[in-house]
Specification:
The protein is mainly α. The protein has two domains: 9-22 and 45-141, Ankyrin repeat-containing domain (Serine Threonine Protein Phosphatase 5, Tetratricopeptide repeat, Alpha Horseshoe), CATH 1.25.40; 143-225, Substrate Binding Domain Of Dnak, Chain:A, Domain 2 (Up-down Bundle). The chain is 58% helix and 0% strand.
């Protein structure tokens, strides 16, 4: 019996070209052939196209959870950064890929990485009105509750409110004129966001009391900046 010959496309063109051509079976064959050679697979996934996107970033954009899973299992860092400081989670939000977001979250992706334009992944899904990605990010921002903890009815709601507060503050900073906040005020708000984001990242199953404490602490810092300013008498 004559062995089946590999596709000409599969063996002669860069993987990025095959991906852009939409040749799904050739992509599957190429990656499948490297599945048990982690070093070669990772090398292939990190090759870039003419737009400086890696092959793995393109597979995220194309919603290929199957190929993403192979790369992560081979040792690719789920939190690696590409051009402009974008992570895989940024691209999943930018292109409205809720299944990819769920996969990345379950594989310990950071929820609040900031790219060079100072955007978190969730900022992008909100900015481009990607409803499914936005909802998945809100879900990921909530505490992963065990059955025993589901009786704490207000825990996920409190966590989601805290998450929304941080996103609102980031969005306000990104959209504000340079003259709206002083350098010190901007630094104070950015530090408050970072503190809250790091706390949420490290405490995914925190008790309600601890969550309320950190949320109230951050609220005391950021909320005065969003209140209407009282006019000066006589002006």
């Amino acid at each position: 019996m004559v062995a089946e010959r590999p596709s000409v496309v599969e063996t002669t063109l860069p993987l990025s070209t095959v991906i852009h051509a939409g040749l799904e079976q050739d992509v599957r064959n190429r990656i499948g052939a490297l599945e048990f050679n982690s070093d070669e697979l990772l090398k292939e996934m990190q090759q870039t196209d003419d737009y400086q996107k890696t092959n793995l970033e393109m597979l995220v954009i194309l919603n290929s959870v199957e190929q993403l899973d192979k790369a992560i299992k081979a040792g690719f860092s789920v939190n690696s950064r590409g051009k402009g400081g974008y992570t895989l989670l940024h691209y999943a939000n930018l292109w409205n890929r809720p299944d990819v977001i769920r996969y990345l979250y379950r594989n310990h992706a950071e929820l609040f990485p900031i790219n060079k334009p100072n955007e978190t992944p969730h900022t992008l899904s909100v900015k481009y009105e990607n409803r499914e990605a936005n909802e998945m990010m809100l879900w990921a921002g909530m505490c992963v509750l065990t059955p025993k903890k589901r009786s704490s009815f207000y825990l996920p709601e409190c966590r989601q409110d805290f998450y929304a507060l941080l996103e609102q503050t980031r969005a306000a900073l990104n959209g504000a004129d340079k003259s709206e906040y002083t350098k010190e005020e901007r630094k104070l708000l950015e530090n408050a966001c970072t503190e809250g984001e790091m706390w949420l990242e490290r405490n995914r199953e925190s008790p309600l009391s601890a969550l309320r404490t950190i949320k109230e602490h951050i609220e005391l810092i950021v909320e005065p900046f969003f209140r209407p300013k009282t006019p000066i008498r006589g002006s």
